Amino acid sequence: MIVESGLTKVLVMGGALVSGVVVISGASGGAQYASTYANTVCSYAFVPATLPEAAASWGASRLSSAQLAHAKGIVDAARALRLPRRAAEIAIAIALQESGLDNSAVGDPGKAFGLFQQRPDSGWGTRAQVSTPDYAARAFYKRLIKVPGWETMPLTKAAAIVQRPRQDLRGEYAKHERKARTLTATLWKPTRVAASPGTSHVRLSASEKAELRQAIQTAAALGTPRSSAIDDVASALAEQTGRDDQTEIRRHAEKAITAIAGDLCAELSAGDISLATAGRGAVAVRAALAMRGVPYSWGGGGPNGPSYGIGRGAGTKGFDCSGLAEYAWAKAGVRVGGDTSMQWNSGTRVPRSQIRPGDLIFFAYNLKNPATIHHVGIAIDATRMVHAPSTGSTVRIEGWAGVPYREREFIGIVRP
């Protein structure tokens, strides 16, 4: 069985934890983090195709797995609406021009969002909606089919009419027409994942699938590449099964990750609220992890980062436990308050069995009295947290589940 100490721990302690610190250094804001999280999940789901036609046409401008995943989503939306391939070609050309198939792109400035750079003030939908790939594609198609003769008019003209009727960008869209046709032709074909013979000895139960789903969310949230996630899962499976046929084990790991990440990607594209919350929690974890090594400072820290504290923390610039929690969740765009009493009431109580990255873990002297809460940590997974422990220490990762004194003081979990 894949247990937390195996699969989830391997994923987090492998590539994800390190890359999470690297990725966060160049980003700013919860929306960007959440979009990066969704893009990474979807990149896990997409098996990079050989795309021989595209390789011949594009040369060095090959798309990343995340970009290909978005292109596939645009094509799949057209197929789901029973539209001809021409609709997808037009949509792909526009997405290549407007965002480079990057769902986190923001333009005009700060008024246009998502793959198609749709503007909420132009009636395309809310920012959250136009930043959801499936919604954005369907919104585009809804307007496209209202254009008389769109099926036979030049791609650039149809694109300009729907996308930017007051600007002549036909020349810009024309640059992407050949690429759009090649990519659409490749992705229009049904995708089949070949079976992996010889892997029948490795099977996942319902609980193991649920745990792998959690592990994928954690790894994607912390920024680990798809290939590293597959390697980590393969290592865990090999250790648990005792098998040494590494090629087959890795094939099974890749197949399992692709299938489960595919479900997650579809749910994200459909705007699943719970997964959006998971994305925000991932943002908080990444923000907190980037602060590892910062000194503990009593009363220190807040939404803008480390600061000088009060009392015994007056001479130290850093975080106390609640200051770190406030900072981490502020990076995700959520206000939780600056002390543990406010944070205890900043969200929804969740049972330990449903803990997710970013959840706040509280500890109290009297488990029947929340007024005695004295410490808060930010969950990485079901057993570990990132926190600012006490004077003389630094922000660090430590275990909490199964640790006797932590268990005695554990009072509950809150999801902001």
Provide structural commentary:
The protein has 416 residues and is of the alpha+beta class. It has three domains: 7-26 and 193-271, no CATH class; 48-187, no CATH class; 292-415, endopeptidase domain like (from Nostoc punctiforme) (endopeptidase fold (from Nostoc punctiforme), Alpha-Beta Complex), CATH 3.90.1720. It is built from 17 helices and ten strands. It has helices spanning 7-24, 30-45, 52-58, 65-80, 85-98, 127-130, 133-144, 155-163, 170-174, 177-187, 206-221, 226-241, 246-269, 273-289, 321-331, 340-344, 404-409; strands spanning 106-107, 112-113, 307-308, 317-318, 348-350, 360-364, 373-379, 384-387, 396-399, 410-415. Strands 5-10-6-7-8-9 form a six-stranded antiparallel beta sheet. The longest helix is centred in the middle third of the chain and has 24 residues, at 246-269. The two termini are 31 Å apart. Mean pLDDT is 78; it is low at 1-33, 49-61 and 191-202. This is C40 family peptidase. Residues 278-416 form the NlpC/P60 domain. Belongs to the peptidase C40 family. Keywords: Hydrolase, Protease, Thiol protease.
